[in-house]
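Notebook, student rotation project (T.W.).
Task set for the rotation: take a protein with a known small-molecule partner, predict the structure of the complex, and write up what can be learned from the model alone. Partner molecule chosen: coenzyme A. Sequence and SMILES entered below by T.W., checked by me.
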Amino acid sequence: MHVFDLDIEITKMLEVDLPSVVGIERNSYDYPWNENIFRDCLLSGYTCVVAKKSDLIVGYAILSSALNEAHILNFCIDKGYRNLGFGHQLLDYLINQSKVNGTEKIFLEVRPSNIKAIALYIKKGFEKIAKRPSYYRHINGREDADVYLLYTSKIGYLDIQY
Ligand SMILES: CC(C)(COP(=O)(O)OP(=O)(O)OC[C@H]1O[C@@H](n2cnc3c(N)ncnc32)[C@H](O)[C@@H]1OP(=O)(O)O)[C@@H](O)C(=O)NCCC(=O)NCCS
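Predicted structure of the complex:
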């Protein structure tokens, strides 16, 4: 496949996108967000975006921002479209937009067991700064979260085009 066939389009998440987003969410997490949580994010003015491949929603991200800090609240690529570089592209987009908006720090939480997501975050320059004990629900009770931070000044604008 030609590399350019892999590019995704990233657009603002709309109410009409919610059924697709919730479908991907349910297939991706043991404890998925419901549609109302996504709707609240839209109403709260968070940065809510969808990643599209040929008009099909293949992923999404939610980012809250206040002053010079941002927090990635949800970040997901549809199971059938993983390992194609879409996660990289979506994260690059969030980092670039944050830099444009003057954000200096981007935080996120991740399950320590989520090796793949952690590998991606580290590749982008995120560093583990803390642990939040018993942050996530888990089949055996609770699981800690690792907290990661990226100083956006640490990196230049990423070489991507939208
Ligand atoms: C994390 C997630 C967004 C990554 O999306 P993706 O589109 O598959 O990511 P990409 O294809 O851009 O990149 C995946 C990277 O992980 C690497 N990877 C794949 N499997 C891996 C594994 N088992 N261990 C370590 N790294 C792995 C790939 O090599 C690739 O890195 P590289 O291309 O730089 O070598 C996706 O797996 C996902 O949506 N997971 C479920 C939701 C989730 O966990 N979100 C994060 C919550 S904090």
